[in-house]
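Progress against Task 2.4 (sequence-to-structure conversion) is shown through the following example record, which the project officer requested during the mid-term review.
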Amino acid sequence: MNKTLVITEKKSVADEFAKVLGGSPAPDGEPREFAKHDIYYESQDLVIAWASGHLLELQQPGEYDKAWKFWSLEKLPIIPEKFVHRPRGDDAKSKKLLTSLVKHIRRDDVDKVVNGCDAGREGELIFNLIMDHALSGRGKTKAQKPVSRIWLQSMTADSIRAAFRDIRPAAEYQELRDAAYSRDRADWLVGMNGTRALTKRFLGGKNRVSLAVGRVKTPTLAFLVDREREIDNFNPKSYWEISAKFSTDTQGKGAEETHYESRWTGKDADGKTSDRLENLETAQAIVDKVKEKVGRAEDSIRRSKEKPPQLFDLTTLQRRASSAFGFTLKRTLSITQTLYEAKKAVTYPRTSSRYLPNDYRGETPKILSRLALGGYAELVAKIPNRDAPDSERKGMVYDDKKVSDHFAIIPTGEVPTSLRADEKKLYDLIVRRFLAAFMPSAERETITRRTFVEEETFKATARKLVVAGWRTAEPIAADDQPFPELDADGGILCLESELLEKETSPPSRYTDGTLVGEMETCGKHVENEEEAEALKDTGIGTPATRAAIVEDLIYKRLARRDGRTLVPTALGSTLVRIVRNMDLGALAKPDLTGVWEQRLRQITDGEYPASKFQAAIVSDVEELVAKVKGADDAGAIFAVDHGGELHCPKCDKLMVEKAYSYFCTDPEDCDTKIYKDAGGKHVFPEILRRVLEAKGELVGPFTGFERPKAPCKMKIGDNALIVLEPEGDIEYEQMGEWKVEEVPDGEVMGKCPKCQAEVKAEGTGFKCQKCKFRLGKKLLLRDLPPEDVRKMLSGPNEATSLIEGFISRRGRPFKAQLLFDEEGALQWKFPPRAAKKKTTKKKVAKKKTAKKKTAKKKTAAKKKTTKKKVATKKKVTKKKAPDKDSQS
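Structure tokens generated for the chain above:
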């Protein structure tokens, strides 16, 4: 019998296919029985084998042409005539899977191949690259077989059976395939050429790091850098608010129940209503004027409807999980993928749609019934017309036109068991949003109380939920405390008034949730969900790729995590500034990159030719490389966004900026060099100017430091180095006991571990008189004892005493010894950890004996169970045999 080969993207999907299809009738009429092999399943008519994500990748430039192997500006741009893929990396497991898949495709008894990879652009690419590989090299003619496609939105048993009944010709997905190849090649061309060009032009030489760019990655990084610059340049302004306590008892004898608080409101300098006062004298005068005075109050009531929300797509789910639980984009995607594949509890997660197809109207009541049995009965009961549920907002749940490859993320109705804590949280989030979409609007009542005293107005609001509606499924904070009732005349007494000094706050750093929102709307700050929905087609990246993009920024050391927030590194900030200052097209402008994503979607829809898109990418790459090659000196490029001159703190001559540092323009007479990286934070030129102009005084505080993790003020030290003075969560006063005596400049401390010349005390460190070696007087916020410095500099591997009081990147104190090795590199030697409690030999022997006994018992039990099963099978066979004979 000829067989059909089904290739899945992951093993878990293959497992489920074999489980669901096993036992169903095969073409010969017999029940289908799958034999499980090492890396595939096989039955009478089917072979189900799996990949492990991407098994192939575009080959490296040097494999196309030996001249492209080495990084060189002259050899750019690199544009292959024909793109070739190779097995991914050196992973033995991946190579084994690929080899096995090719063998199956070329098998004589396999006459059809079915693409069972994830339903989307990347799944299409994974499968077709495997087919391309099988259709190349020796034996390629054996791989020329008809190809079909399974399109799965859900991993439930019913959905899998339905998908196998509706296998479609691969030709129907030609446009999706074209878009997949176009995306793959575009990313390679931009990343490979842009990274090499910028790295060689601005970093030069041999580097451990590179200026890694990407058509989606770099604009995403730009959001982080722009926000960091906003925060650094934010100038807080002081203002005042007035808080007052009133009583509805004008005699001042009322109980606590008659009291309420309110804030002053009035007109600002521009005539706009505001609760802020910028003039202290004016604010104080109002405080004095209203205190202990009688006035009147009046209430106004406004009732508003809050319409039910839309369903989740991956982006809105990631944003919600980030704000509710602090989940990263990657973590949310991973959990949802598990709920989809392993638990069959939710539909396909990598979707950009928030709608369901119209033919799902019949499925929704079934899902509601299952959810009611799975612990959500109370919420399901709140949905009107459960036999044909729909949203109050017509067209906001079902719309075929707004469902492309996949529909919204919803529960399948399968009740999952044994969920981990984070899986429960996300599953509950998805179920509640699904139920909320079919519930009535919520209604809120807002009571605004205006209080008038001595011609001044005070305003307070109290909100309460009067109709829970869909908020039953997604609750909000408790109602505000109600105001005390007013008398008929509204009379009140001002019991006390208080002046509150406040300060404007800088914008917040991005979290995973807020960053993915910016990527979706291309940086257009949109709060309204419907407006954000309209901007989706011009967003950068896709729901399926955005998590990987953020993780890649961190992996490439262009950004880092600081708690829940994302911070650009000095390298990342430098890269974005170069791209912006040179105006490198789409790399500099997120909206242009969004147009690329729009084009890829149009290719998928058959509305734009792939050849035209690829030609545009090649043209963009050629223009990018030409701009980098023809760029001015690096100093001139960096100076574009300086906004003013930088003067050397030693000689007052102009300074120039390069990739890693700011240099004095007179290197012969002045060796001043100021590193851009201060405690893991990029020092932007305008910040350095402020520090230089302060002439050794502290400036700040600034935030976003990696070491220490605390706000720090900055100043220029004696040796033209940036000095950080932490404040906040590191209590410096407690470290006073570690302060050491000062060593006068010029005092010889020992021999240089690099060149053996004299090392002398100079400014804030100890400097070699011959080479560039320098050791700071302070390491990780701890002043080094002079006697330990002398010991370190007495020869290689000479360790200091155990020094206490160093502060780690996380702000934690620790102790260590320091030494220089034979190559002159500084090494840290930590004290041994406390030994674990020893277990006696007798106890170990007892444990081993117990384990052996347990193992024997388990083996015996298994043998008994096996014997019983075999006996049962024999009995069943004997009983069934006569039935078969009688039927035939």
